[in-house]
Amino acid sequence: MPTALLNDQKIHPIEFRKWADAERQFARGKDRQRVDELKASIKKRGLLKPIKLGVSVRYPDVYVGDGHHRAIALRELGIADFPFHWYWIKSFGVHIETEPFPYRLLDA
What we know:
- 31% of the residues lie in helices and 24% in strands.
- By secondary structure, the protein is an alpha/beta fold.
């Protein structure tokens, strides 16, 4: 998945209103330390744990469900692409997918 899609219009952060809010939160303290550790690890070995993307059927939007620190590290490093897993959030629960990601949702 292209890292450039981690933006407020395409793949947004679920825990924050905007990516700038996440970046401010992760600018200091333990969060900053974690992002810096991830950046060092990603430089050496790449991203070892994929980011989890959630896709809401109700709103059709895409967001980072797990991996906000990793996403910030990737954005700061300017990494072109990242590995990911994805899941649907449907009215009857969450379903981890093995099918291809519905990229059409990012064109909206």
